[in-house]
Amino acid sequence: MYALVEFKGRQYRAEKGALLKVDKIDAEPGSRLDIDSVLLFSGDNSGITVGAPYVAGARVNAVVEGHEKGKKIIVFKYKPKKDYRRKTGHRQQYSIIKVEDITGV
Predict the structure, then answer these.
(1) CA nearest to 48, candidates 4, 85, 93
(2) Number of domains in the chain
(3) Could you give the C-alpha distances from 50 to 1, 9, 46, 56, 59, in angstroms and in order?
(4) 3-state secondary structure (DSSP) of residue 25
(5) What is the pLDDT of residue 76?
(6) Which of 52, 77, 81, 98 is geometrically suited to a Cys-Cys bond with 86, CB 3.0 to 4.6 A?
């Protein structure tokens, strides 16, 4: 059983017990999430249900496990012969959520 969900503008494949790495959300670890924007639902023996755009009645329940930072990305700007060099870095912040349950139609 799995579902394709749209969360914060991105699509994820959610299975029961799976850990999803999503963009950072303002929620404490241990808090619960209900995601009702399910694009596709595949049950055990009910086949595949595709939404238009969302599947009515389908819901994914998840719990926030924690927050982490991604790998550092170096941004280097350079213009030859002009003595112009700028070096900056960026680390994207993520939230880890664990899918508890998927309820379908």
Answers:
(1) 4
(2) 1
(3) 14, 18, 12, 10, 14
(4) coil
(5) 98
(6) 77
Cα separation, 97 vs 29, whole angstroms: 9
For 44-78, the pLDDT digits (tens) are: 777 888 988 999 989 999 999 999 999 999 999 99
Structural domain span for residue 56 = 2-103
Tokens of 15: 């299975």
pLDDT digits (tens, 9 = 90+) for 28-37: 999 999 999 9
For the chain, helix (H) and strand (E) counts, in that order, are 0, 10
Which tokens is 58 given?
């389908």
Tokens 């379908």 belong to residue: 104
Pairing type for strands 73-79 and 84-90 reads antiparallel
One-letter-per-residue 3-state SS of 67-88:
EEECCCEEEEEEECCCCEEEEE
Residues 6+ apart with CB under 8 A from 54: 6, 36, 37, 38, 39
Residue type present at position 46: S
